[in-house]
Amino acid sequence: MSTSQASPDKYTQVREDIAKAFPNEDYDDGSFAPVVLRLAWHASGTYDKDHKDGGSDGATMRYKTEAEDPANAGLEHARHFLDPIKAKHSWISYADLWTLAGCVAVEHMGGPHIEWTGGRRDKGNETDCPPLGRLPDGALGKDHVLDVFVSRMGFTVQETVALIGAHTVGRCHADRSGFDGPWTYNPTRFSNQFYKLLLNVTWVEKKWDGPRQFVDEDEGEIMMLPTDMALLEEPFRQYVELYAKDQQKFFDDFSAAFLKLIELGVAKRSKM
Ligand code: HEM
Q1: Which ligand 1 atom is the nearest neighbour of the CA of 28?
Q2: Averaged pLDDT for residues 76-88
Q3: Can you tell which superkingdom this protein's organism belongs to (predicted)?
């Protein structure tokens, strides 16, 4: 990056400032880390391998068109959370900041390190936003998950299962997506609990005046989306079983798949 005069580890202070700010008693389950992870994913998950557009390069969610996509409802909390970090380290691009913050979030919650590299640039126009409607719809099933992750973004089935394991953290908000509740009992800790619960809990349809979702039969405290339940079917299920048994394998595969996600459509550059 040409603007940088700083030392090779210039991101260390940025990482520390992000991590220090995550805990917050007044927000959700006490941390901004899950919603920041979701920002990194939604900034990247618009990539289309055939059209070669979308992806994290550009940080186009700063513009109204993409910011107001209903799929991105609630992500303003993550963007605003990062504003003071951007103000302090003004040399970093939003595109780098958002993806770096997602990686810091994973690590901060006890997950694997991700070999993030910088060099993304911010695009300067509303018209640079990718077409809306590319992010997955939790109300749909297996074919949709395959369409979005395998056909459009170019992930393998195994990488797809690893990525969706991020639902081990965070929660759904009725006023954002319409769905409600956390996936696990410890939504600020990154682990393989999502897969264990998916396999071992008796899931029943939630009886409520809201979109179709599943809750645990006993207390109705934790939840799954229809797309999460689709992972119980092949070709996904074998990997759910693998990751439920082997957390280290999940961490290794998540780390690699998440790196691939945040690199989609990012112009080649020399290592920062
Ligand atoms: C089929 C694919 C996916 C669907 C349909 C989906 C859908 C959703 C929905 C509906 C929510 C709740 C939003 C809200 O109400 O605030 C959510 C939250 C979340 N998703 Fe996903 N997601 C998918 C894949 C992923 C992937 C690949 C990642 C990351 C690698 C991810 C990370 C998260 C996180 C961390 C949250 C919690 C956010 C918070 O606590 O505010 N999701 N997702």
Answers
A1: 40
A2: 98
A3: Eukaryota
